[in-house]
Design goal:
By secondary structure, the chain is of the alpha/beta class. The protein contains 8 helices and 5 strands, in the order βαβαβαββααααα. Helix content is 48%, strand content 12%. Strand 3, helix 3 and strand 4 form a beta-alpha-beta unit. The N and C termini lie far apart (47 Å).
Length: 204
Amino acid sequence: MTDDPPLVVIVEDEPAVAEGYQLWLEGEYRTRVATDGGEALEVIDEEADVVMLDRMMPDMAGEEVLAELRARGLDVGVVMVTAVEPDFDVIEMGFDAYITKPPDRDELLQVIEQLAERSALSDELQEYYSLMARKGTLEAEKTRAELEESDAYDELVERIDEQQEEVDGTLGDVGEEAEFVDVARDLFGEPETEELKDATGEEP
């Protein structure tokens, strides 16, 4: 058991941006910085609690780094912090949160705090949160019509339902998805999923 602050690894190819993130995290977290994907895979290890990962990097895309981290089985929360607008391809990415640049400081710090706290959760519950994060990311960006037309989104919802069955035993059977998320949010600070947009792009 260690009393050290959580370790956040910042993967960002723009040094000034990385330095800005470090200033935001100063005092609350330890930090490491990697300026490309290859360096990221060298400095991210079992000690890391959270990774801030850019998607667009010159030598290796962020999703490639993410895939390698998951293949290694590292128990680390990953927040994508990127200028790339999310599309349906994010469904197969194993991130835990997705924030579009430029990030809001308070939102980013809240997400990092939540991910650092979740490191003690079961693998089943962490996977549930990851799937819900991908679902919430799409619902925040896509219209209701786009979601209804997407087979990939339908499959994601089915995966969430299946995962919920696995975690019911962890928190007890809480019934409907919305009720489950309310219970999990009370325990671990899970943010609410944004409501779907209608076909015009406005919230219903």
